[in-house]
TrEMBL record:
Chain's gene name: lpxB
The enzyme's E.C. designation: 2.4.1.182
Domain of life: Bacteria
UniProt keyword terms in alphabetical order: Glycosyltransferase, Lipid A biosynthesis, Lipid biosynthesis, Lipid metabolism, Transferase
Molecular function, one GO term: lipid-A-disaccharide synthase activity
Function: Condensation of UDP-2,3-diacylglucosamine and 2,3-diacylglucosamine-1-phosphate to form lipid A disaccharide, a precursor of lipid A, a phosphorylated glycolipid that anchors the lipopolysaccharide to the outer membrane of the cell.
Native organism taxonomy: Bacteria, Pseudomonadati, Pseudomonadota, Alphaproteobacteria, Rhodobacterales
Organism: Parasedimentitalea maritima
Family according to the record: Belongs to the LpxB family.
Signal sequence interval, chain numbering: none
Catalytic class of the enzyme: transferase
Transmembrane segments: none
The protein's name: Lipid-A-disaccharide synthase
């Protein structure tokens, strides 16, 4: 009898993970069938989503409250669909506020096996989440190599399956040459500026990034600034860059065909001499491209006070965490000032080699040169199913 999988993703990053896992499941278990909720990448692998995934892609209290009753109804509908279809396994991907509520209802009324893909960052804050999660989740698939011990200590099976960044294509020499030629860059050195993909991030970070880069470029007069902008905030980025130094270049993905836009982004990441980036997963994209970086982030005052008191770690950058080092400078909260950032950029520019070594180790630890994370995730699910 063929394997029956109910799979649920609630946001684009989860859709990518789900699509890659579905490829792996189809390879290892031919004839597997899928039900659930997902986006385009999961649909490409044969999933007919019960409703559009973007209904679940809601972030922030102000955005969630108006849709709260609708989301509660969707949680109930999905749980009822899982119980009715009696799959061999329910796989929920990230989006814990939605996913774990579905799993709770499923476990309340059935013995269906539950797998959650992406471990919560209990090593960073709120460690009690793991024990609550263990009441409804049988197995966790972890992206980071140090996460299984935290999940296992809480009573769940856990497998490290690798981070999807290691499977992302990197720029070829030809792509880099074409990018430099099309942008009129020649051999000009440049620094990447990545002030975030959300409007609130760009609003907070663009002014201090601009001031810091102005100070940095005074002592590095040949350095140009390139800003790969996310499409939803590209217009805002252009507006904010009017006060930035020199001839800052915005890479707006809307100006190119999708494949060309992706190629330009890969080339910019790979060819940059260094980067100034908002805190987040972009640090791993930079590490994969072997680009040294400085990480900076401004928080709302109350958010910073809460985080400062609840945090269990002293760094937010995964290169630092994975390598047990502090080679990537961070300017966070009150330390996110133009003076601090420009000083850190100058330090990194003068000695990038330390970061190069840490980034290579990070990619190795995250699964580079092994099986693809999607295939490893599929294998881990099937092996635990027995």
């Amino acid at each position: 009898m063929s394997l029956r999988v109910f799979i649920l993703a609630g946001e684009p990053s989860g859709d990518r993970l789900g699509g890659a896992m579905m490829v792996g499941l189809k390879q290892l278990s031919p004839g597997v069938s899928f039900d659930g909720v997902g986006g385009q990448m999961m649909s490409d692998q044969g999933l007919v989503s019960q409703f559009p995934m973007d209904e679940l892609s809601v972030m922030g209290l102000a955005e969630v409250l108006p849709k709260y009753q609708h989301l509660k109804r969707r949680i109930r509908e999905v749980a009822e669909a899982v119980i009715a279809s009696k799959p061999d396994v329910l796989i929920t991907i990230d989006a814990p506020d939605f996913s774990l509520r579905v799993a709770k209802l499923v476990k309340k009324s059935s013995s269906i096996r539950t797998v959650h893909y992406v471990a919560p960052s209990v090593w960073a804050w709120r460690p009690g989440r793991a024990k609550r999660m263990a009441r409804v989740i049988d197995q966790v698939l972890a992206l980071l190599p140090f996460e299984p011990r935290f999940m296992q200590a809480a009573g769940m099976e856990c497998d490290f399956v690798g981070h999807p960044v290691v499977a992302e294509p990197q720029a070829t020499p030809n792509e880099i040459s074409r990018f430099r030629a099309e942008m009129g860059m020649g051999d000009t050195p440049f620094v990447l500026a990545l002030p975030g993909s959300r409007r609130s991030e760009v609003e907070r970070l663009a002014p201090v990034f601009g001031e810091a880069l102005a100070a940095f470029c005074k002592s590095h007069p040949n350095m140009r600034v390139i800003v790969p902008a996310a499409a939803p905030v590209a217009d805002l980025v252009r507006d904010k860059l009017q006060s930035w130094p020199g001839d800052a270049l915005v890479l707006d993905p809307r100006d190119f065909e999708p494949a060309t836009a992706q190629s330009h982004k890969r080339a910019a990441f790979a060819a940059a001499d260094l980067a100034l980036a908002a805190s987040g997963t972009v640090s791993l994209e930079l590490a994969a491209a072997n680009t040294p970086m400085v990480i900076a982030y401004k928080f709302q005052w109350l958010t910073w006070q809460i985080m400062k008191r609840m945090a269990l770690i002293d760094t937010v950058t995964l290169v630092n965490l994975v390598t047990c080092s502090r080679v990537v400078p961070e300017c966070l909260g009150p330390e996110c000032t133009a003076d601090n950032i420009s000083t850190a950029l100058s330090q990194v520019a003068s000695n990038p080699q330390t970061q190069h070594q840490a980034m290579a180790l990070t990619m190795s630890q995250l699964g580079l040169d092994g099986e693809s994370p999607g295939l490893r995730a599929a294998r881990a699910v099937l092996e635990r199913l027995g």
